[in-house]
Design goal:
- This protein has 132 residues and is of the alpha+beta class.
- The chain contains one helix and nine strands, in the order H-E-E-E-E-E-E-E-E-E.
- The protein has a five-stranded antiparallel sheet, with no helix packed on it. Strands 1-3-4-7 form a four-stranded antiparallel sheet, with no helix packed on it.
- The protein starts with a helix and ends with a strand.
- The model is unreliable at 20-28 (pLDDT under 50).
Length: 132
Amino acid sequence: MKKNYLLVLLLIGIVASFIVDMQATSIACEGVLTKVDMHREVLDSSLIKRVPERDPLELSCYVIDDINTIFLSANKTVLAEIEIENFTTGDYASYYDQISTASLSLPVYGSGRYLILVTLSNGVNYFGEFEL
């Protein structure tokens, strides 16, 4: 009986420490969430469609300052090249990945003014600017 009592106390201690750790992690991850406005790039007015797209792409981009991470998501799955440039330091990163309803997370390094360029597989570009 005494062994069962110690085992129950040990399990309660493990669960309690897990809960405290999860709360500390959630508090530590509560950084500043910044929405990045993404704009569709139109190079030539002749490329503008007269009829609206049936299911237009909605691209969302957010930055969390504390963990220096960009989160990209879309209302449908698309293949894209994502380029991130820091205007302040000149750093540049390029990724080729799939953007979908599940957020794609990409790291950014250092503070400064950034440009993010998303080029879809069909050649359409979206861009946004943000500052860390």
